[in-house]
Write a structure and sequence with these properties.
heterodimer; A: D-Maltodextrin-Binding Protein, domain 2; D-Maltodextrin-Binding Protein, domain 2; 2 domains; 3-stranded antiparallel beta sheet; disordered N terminus; B: mainly alpha; 10 helices; 78% helix; elongated
Chain lengths: 319, 228
Amino acid sequence: MRTRTGATGAMAALAAVALAAVAACSSGTSSSSPAAGASSSGNNPLSQGGSSGTVVVGSANFPEDELLAVIYAKALEAKGVKVTTKLNIGAREVYYPQIQKGTISIIPDYNGSLLTGVVDKTSKARTTAQVDAALTAKLPSTLEILNPSPATDSDSVTVTQATANKYHLKSIADLKSVAGSMVIGGPPEFKTRTDGLVGLKAYYGLTFKSFDPLDESGPITLAALKDGKVQAADVFTTTPQIITDKLVPLADPKFNFAAQNVIPLVYKPAMNATIMNTLNAVSAKLTTAALLQMDNAVIVQKADYGTVAEGFLQAEGLT
Amino acid sequence: MSFFSWAWDWVTTSANWTGSGSIPHQILAHLGYTIVPLVIAAVIAVPAGVAIGHSGRGAVAVVNLANAWRSIPTLGLLILLVVYLGFLFVTWLVPLVVLAIPPILINAYEGVAGVDPGVKDAARGMGMTSWQQVTRVEVPIALPLILVGLRTGAIFVVATATIAAYIGLGGLGRFIIDGLASNEYGPVAGGALLVVVLAVLVLAFFAVLNRLVVPAGLRSQAKASRTE
């Protein structure tokens, strides 16, 4: 099960402090507090919830989710919806209570992590349909998920382009005859968790030569794959190095890894038909390949989020 | 359950003592990850510290550099080397050598620089060459401090060699990192306990070494003046 970690803890803490400060101000009568002024331009989104004409698009504290928030926000603006963005709010534990209260109206999330992260930690749902059904059943009445996008950011068994060509690999199932000669790498827990080696054996009948404990789709895993220290590794499907290092994430038709489709989580009272149709139209055009290209642009090439988002919306005829 | 009962239960489980990746296997690997960097660091830092202490040249620069050098983050350097060099022998070796150099260098320098000027004058007055002054007088007198430097370096390295496991290698860090990743406290506590045991054995080893190589007359003197 994927978790986002990294150098964002401090940012999350800062965001939490800022949110607390803003909330304190909005409940009082003073509007001259410097903390309130710093939070947003003019209208304080925290004091209006979703009831007025403005929707608030939030994002978690990692680049891909910020990019998705900017894409959804710009698509809404193009349809004449008044939008404020609150990017980089924090981890799910921080933003989920916010959207439950309606202080943010829309946040791009991932269906599998949303389900097992906060909604139903014990859920065994794996396919997109199962996960979405479980979410629809278990989400609080104020929240709902819109249509899942085809774009996913999940764990995967990834090989180099050279390995894929050599053994004609497209899906994890194609590894059947070669897994015995391959070393697979991943985070240490990959060895024992059910969607790690255990699931690969149960669903695809794969037994690898050995397992190398590395990191969570980070620099060590990528270096090991590039170096040939491992021939396959657990890599997230929108890791920019998939493009720069020419890697091939193998398809997972049996959903060893639970679905992680990009999906807008929304606060129901803030929705109307225009907003929902616009968000669904964007989701329908988002693919893993498109998301990977855009991640590469903003993370590796340091391109501007707004420019990348507008480029995508224009190319897909969504503006 | 306390830390010790977790650690004890895990260490005394016989299944953890057999097979590949077992406790004896990882202790041996851990000793390898300790001894190799320590020997390399000693070969670099002891002669360098002695030379600087003897000549007095560049002492301020080198001591300050060595102190600044201590702030190089070992884990950060390890990951940097993995990314730029890949998985080579030097990838795990360099960060541990870097870690061990400052205490060895500074103690060797302090030991030689602190030799009584009167003794140095006497050695020169007896007609000793510069080389003879260093090898027959200054290094033997500095030996207690040189050993303190080596001991400190060894403690640093034995405790930090756990990071080898971070890049998929063995050693006692394997138990700690894998245990944390799979929420099993036994191997985490047990692995940490074994690192502590190794560190205590390192101390004992240097205590014995000190008895064997330092002349008896110097041992009492060194006790009074030692700095770490």
